[in-house]
Amino acid sequence: MAWPKGRTRKQRPRAEPGSMRALVPSWQEWMRTRNYSAHTVHVHGLHLEYFVEWCEERGISRPDDVSLALIEGYQRWLYNYRRENGKPLAFQSQHSRLVSLRVFFKYLARTRFIDANPAADLEYPLIGPRMLPRAVLTAAEAELVLAQPDLHDPLGLRDRAILEVFYSTGMRRGELVKLRLYDVDGAKGTVFIHQGKGRKDRVIPIGERALAWVEKYVAEVRPLLAMEPDEGILFLAAMGQALTPNAVSAAMGRYVAAAGIDKPGACHVFRHTMATLMLENGADIRFIQEMLGHANLETTQIYTRVSIQTLKDIHTAAHPAAKLEKTRSEPAHRELAEPAEVPADPALQETHAFSRGQLWKARPPAPPPPSSEEP
Known about the structure:
By secondary structure, the protein is mainly α. The protein is 49% helix and 3% strand.
């Protein structure tokens, strides 16, 4: 988003009565009273802030001045926008920002701030199938990342425990920062996820190794970080407050980079890795769905497209031409160079040559066998 010179996001202009900016707080309160999650309210508000800034740069501040043509112009602007790395916004991001406008103007129309919803007839960009995870670590790479934190530093020990939890459970970073001490059940080897994505609770298993690191952190490090009043948050920052999702991502990303692994991602890469490795080791996809907290099995099935190792093993075992066999007398490349036996039927020779990628000359037909009958 292009921000006016000399002003940052925190230095917002004064909201004039009746302007879109002045109506945002009442809209957000309306969403809260209808049980929208705090994350949804925040994201909708952020998306609307982008749109309001864009409109104000063009001299438009009141909602009754917004038309469908204006929103379509904003849609084109989103399509042509380039981030700092030169890449465009994903269609999913464009779609989400436009949906926030629809929700906002629908609220204004219902509460009679405007006569009609200008975004009602807006055509949204099509969303294609979910993309494959950009990066998945091998088991060896995951162990290399886990070995990066300095265990002589209290925060390093804390980060090792966080990495182990990510790798063992595949939970989201937003779920991890909300964990409390009593959410981890060492006796049962489980973790209680409170109000995960979609505001759903779930209980998932945690491995013995990850549990041991969490217990070590709680016994040796957390008492050094906790401050009164202690609200029981499991993982704490250096000043005793709860970690933020962005702080966790920054720390985990540094460990991935320190391991020399040239793959994008930080917290979520362990989520992808856990699901993929479990699937390759024979876990039922429905159990992985429960671990990840996916509402639809279709979301989890994307990992069947990532888990190529099992498919490769089956291909190697079942396909007759998957293996390159060597003989003692001839090197492997001779086997590639020599064609298979040519069919005796001349009509099949040309077809056989084409299928082998060779340009063989058709052999003359063999003479017919002598007849056993007397003339």
